[in-house]
Fold:
Amino acid sequence: MALLGISNLTHSYGDHIVLDGVNLTLEHGEHVGMVGVNGCGKSTLLKIIAGYGNLKADAGQVQLLRGARAGYLTQDPQLDPNRTLRAEAGAAFAKLHQLHEQMDELTHQMAEAEGDALEALLKKYEQVQHKMEAAGGYAVDHRIDATLHGLGLGDEIFNVKVGALSGGQRGRLALAKLLLTDPDLLLLDEPTNHLDIEARRWLEQYLSSYNGAVIVISHDRWLLDRVASKIYELDRGRLEEYPGNYQKYRVLRRERLEFRWREYEKQQERINREQAFIDRYRAGQRARQASGREKRLERFKRDETVERPITLETMNLRLSSNSRASDVVIVAENISKGYDNKPLFDGLSVSIKRGDCIGIIGPNGAGKTTLINTLLGHLEPDDGKCRVGAQVDVGYYRQTHDHLDLRETVVEYLRRVTSSEQEARGLAGAFLFAGTAQDKPLNVLSGGERSRAVLASLVAGGHNLLVLDEPTNHLDIPSAERLEEALRVYAQPPKSYGTTSEGGGTVMLITHDRMLLDNLVNQLLIFDGQGNVRQFYGTYSEYLATLDPSAAQTPAPPPPKPEPRPERKPDPKPPATKAKGPHSALSDAKLEAKMSTLDQQRTDIDAQLADPNIYRDGQKVRELQQQREKIIDELSSLEEEWLRRSE
Structure:
């Protein structure tokens, strides 16, 4: 029986519908990812599943298997500020601590008891000891320490009160506490928000081997590729499932969209053809026939038409460098910097050339932002010297946005980099600020909206050096992918310079977004957190392979436009044909028809599962759920055949 079943779930905030007939089935041990644009309702869905804050759906049902436990990681966790970090993590084993106390008390009682009383205490002691061993016994201390260390929380802050921790530290503590409870269903809402790369790698390994079920909302494409076996996309209130990891989801989503466009265009051709006949013969000898066809057309429009496919809006992001920087953009010789007798980097020499894409990675607090500010001349090095090259025009995206005047509206902020209000409004519109949103002050915008405003100002600047400090932190996945593509084009060799040119820029990037790193940078500056910085020439995947060859075995997505490989001489053996799937004998028309039929069958089953009365018949519900799973499996197989033919 399924661990979790959701049928026809709906929820609204006022007139805004965020969940519109959501259906989901989750099996034991299944790990799925959930994606969608910011504000689409993903967090709302998880809160309803978890029963968090007494949030309930307007209609529909959520059924968690009886006796199963769900654990939910919120984006604003509730922790006891008066406990130490270590004690708060240990609170995950509160029941075990109670058993320890019982055993201590029984030990004291046995020391003074005799005869039958001692026998009774011994039996009780054995019972409590058995319960304690079943709950983890004395091994929990190691589990607590290993989990905290894995998430980047060191021994030096174990005795710090929770109230004195930073927001990032509290977020990691909440995640550690949840993982230690070992629930049957983990509900994770952006678990990597406060994690550096090493902590993200640890979390991936933990989740990959986790025996329970997992639903994870994340903008971390690298994590979704390595943890999820299925992706759910929430779009305009509807939830759609895609088998496979994130990269397969991208392929299948594109193929489904193309298929739906073809279905929609065929439907429109039929409607237009019928309407033309009706208009032509509405009056005259064939008027009766035209009237009959008009009624059939109306029924067709009402009952059988498919909706026009809708594509996601993304930023119109195009980066250009208006002028040519010098060959050497920045040079640093033996620079050192530290605070409070703690070295951040020491004796570092680096030369950044025009066209370089450099990623800067390392633990939180290691000094990455300090290095950027030192290289740009915003901070003086303790030793050594830095020089910025001639005609270098810097565009700096800061992680915290502390430099902004939050009283300014979006348009007022963009007027700083544009020649007129009309140009500023056009730029705001290209970055998805429409209508009255353009006149909102920056202090009321979400983190993602504010990030889009800052990126818009960089676009208008025409800088030839972009320095980006965690640019994807508040962006949803479509926006992050759009930024990635724009940066890739920006850093390619240019044909010319100017407002309409492409390429010629240099990028310095601080990020924990490993997919962005791997698809963009060609060298790395790697902080170890102990004052040492290593320079590595190559991609992030190539760097990982030097640490752990097995890490390179997980396939990473190819860059958007790989360089062509040299031609090989033809093999004297006859070329092998592509393996044919089980549906290879079907014609294109029959393949599309079968996909359309199965899609309709799934819709019909969802409609039956939406009826609350059906849950009085448990056998019928199980049969429908099994039919639905079978249809989804067959649809996946048909889509793979469709993909094979389109290659």
Summary: Residues 419 and 463 are 16 Å apart (CA to CA). The chain is about 40% helix and 20% strand. The mean pLDDT is 83. The two ends are 38 Å apart (CA to CA).
